[in-house]
Amino acid sequence: MTTLDGRDVISVMDTLVAESALLGLLDGVHIGLGMAKLFPQRLLSLVIGATTADASEDNAEPGPLLKMFRRGCRRAMRRWWKT
C-alpha cells in the first residue's frame, strides 16, 4: 500500500537517483507535499496540479501540509516579484 508522505517514492529513488523533480497530480499532490516536508533535499522542484488550496468543505482549519504549501507559495511570489 502506498503512503501519502512520499516514503515509498523515496525508497524507489534510493535505488535510481539521488534527487529528482516531481509532478504531483491528484493523490500525487499529497505524496509530493509529504516528500517536500520530510525529504526536501531529494526534490529539485515540485509541480502540483489537479488540486485545490482550500481547506476542507466543512471550513476546518487547514492542515500542516496546506500551511507549508501556502508559505512556500508566498516565498516564491516574493522572490519572483523581486526579480
Give a structural overview.
By secondary structure, this protein is an alpha+beta fold. The protein has 2 domains: 1-51, no CATH class; 54-83, no CATH class. 49% of the residues lie in helices and 16% in strands. The protein has helices at 7-16, 27-38, 64-82; strands at 20-25, 43-49. A two-stranded parallel ribbon has the order 1-2. Helix 2 crosses helix 3. The longest helix is centred in the last third of the chain and has 19 residues, at 64-82. The chain is globular and about 35 Å long. 14% of the residues are buried.
Cα distance spanning the termini: 43 Å
Q: Name the strands of the widest sheet in spatial order.
A: 1-2
Structurally, the number of domains stands at: 2
Largest sheet: 2 strands, parallel
Low-pLDDT regions = none
Kindly state the percentage of residues in helix. 40-55%
Number of helices in the DSSP assignment: 3
Helix/strand-derived category reads alpha+beta
Question: What gyration radius follows from the Cα positions, in whole Å?
Answer: 14 Å
**Global shape:** globular
What's the mean pLDDT score? 79
Percent in strands = 15-25%
Q: Report the strand count.
A: 2
Series of H and E elements: HEHEH
